[in-house]
Amino acid sequence: MLRILLVEDEENIRETVKLNLEMDDFEVVTAADGRQALKHAQEQHFDLMIVDVMLPEVDGFQVVEQVRLTDRETPIIFLTAKDQAADRIQGLKKGADDYLTKPFVFEELLLRVRRLIERTSKNPDVKPDLFTFGNNKVNFATYEAEGNQGTFTLTKKEAMLLKLLTDRRGEVVSRQQILQSVWGYDVYPSTRTIDNFILSFRKYFEQDPKHPAHFLSVRGVGYKFVD
Question: Which residues form the Response regulatory domain (predicted)?
Fold first, then answer.
């Protein structure tokens, strides 16, 4: 039985969609807020996720962005009342595969669910998630990297932080955003920990670590990646 994570804070919609999906032989796990959704996503396997945007605790955009730091494969559909073009674009940029606005017809949602799952099942092999910049290479699927020190393996946290920065290339990412996305919403290490990770990245990948070209500090705010 295929498993779906349904993240929706409106109880009536949540229960109605859950019931209809179960009638079509899906196993459905629900979450009413973003924190609970992230907990489920970290602890369980799902074949697809349906996520609202306007959620308590952690919004849907942040949920998907954090999931995508470690999971590039699970199909995700946004199901939301936010129907502006800018919202759809942001949702797809965060890593969603589809975007359906409310009000909606359940048959359309079901069709999109089936198509995404079918597409994934036809391509079961994990594709290398390769990223190159300068003379450096990073495989986010295996955590293997190639830089100034030759070939080496990143830790999971290093890979997550590097993925966050490279996905937002050209944007300033604050220390608070980094802590929330990489370390979660319940564990807050010292901001000095982030600084040490950035220093490591410069040693790994910069031609001149003292004068970085890729991992830039933005004083009083955070960091920016430039390729």
Answer: 3-117
Enumerate the domain spans of the chain: 3-122, 130-225
Whether residue 198 is predicted with pLDDT greater than 60 in this model: the reply is yes
Residue pLDDT, tens place only, 110-163: 999 999 999 887 665 555 678 999 999 999 989 999 998 899 999 999 999 999
φ, ψ (nearest 5 deg) of residue 44: -130, 165
3-state secondary structure the chain: CCEEEEECCCHHHHHHHHHHHHHCCCEEEEECCHHHHHHHHHHCCCCEEEECCCCCCCCHHHHHHHHHCCCCCCCEEEEECCCCHHHHHHHHHHCCCEEEECCCCHHHHHHHHHHHHHHHHHCCCCCCCEEEECCEEEECCCCEEEECCEEEECCHHHHHHHHHHHHCCCCEEEHHHHHHHHHCCCCCCCHHHHHHHHHHHHHHHCCCCCCCCCEEEECCCEEEECC
Class of domain 130-225: mainly alpha
Residue 103: per-residue pLDDT: 92
Mean pLDDT across the stretch 95-103? 95
Distance CA 77, CA 181 (A): 20
* Topology given in CATH for the domain delimited by 3-122: Rossmann fold (3.40.50)
Give CA–CA dist 158/171, Å, rounded: 19
pLDDT at 58 over 60: yes
